[in-house]
Amino acid sequence: ERFLRVLEKGKLRSSLLPDGVTSHEGLLFPSTSQIGEDEDEVAVARRLVEEMEEQVAPIDFATAEAMGYSRYEAIVIASMIEAEAKIDSERPKVARVIYNRLEIGEKLGIDATVNYAIRDHKLDLTLSELAVDSPYNTRRYPGLPPTPIGAPGAEALSAAAEPADGDWLFYVLADCDGRHAFSATYDEFLVDKAAYEALGCS
Fold first, then answer.
1. d(CA 121, CA 115)
2. DSSP per-residue codes, 100-139
3. For a Cys staple, 82 with which of 4, 25, 111, 156, CB 3.0–4.6 Å?
4. Among 160, 182, 178, which residue's Cα sits nearest to residue 169?
5. pLDDT digits (tens, 9 = 90+) for 89-115
């Protein structure tokens, strides 16, 4: 509780936070840390904030910025990539899908943002959960959620900064190991989805 208060009450502020944003969601780097007995909540929070700043500092966000997105918005995108893709080589493709959908004004439709809105981690969301009225619900509202939905790692950050080239607008699981199939049309997506469902992955 004291740790959260440090981040919520302005006792510490990441340089990655834009004006008007106070939430440190997504701005604490997700890594294993050894915490000394003499470290208090301020020291721990500062270490995590500074590690994220160090991870972000060398990344060139020129491609994202050229598309009209700030560094913070790219971190928001990275947080969704982190939640959606478990295989590093797919992260730049997921990034491209997100940017492509944003470009044409298509809702992102990312279930991980719905889970964030309902504070859960469900694989099968109900219709009422998918319709939850929250700015984080990218199935209901277009554009980006207000803040990151989790802490992105280095690969997700790099993917958001430098997405793959492609015209994909959809992706769906392709095997039982977490790999995805990417498609440019809804018809192709439906074929890929049916192929995955036929596998019967639990």
1. 5
2. HHHHTT-----HHHHHHHHT---SS--HHHHT---TT-TT
3. 156
4. 182
5. 999 999 999 999 999 999 999 999 999
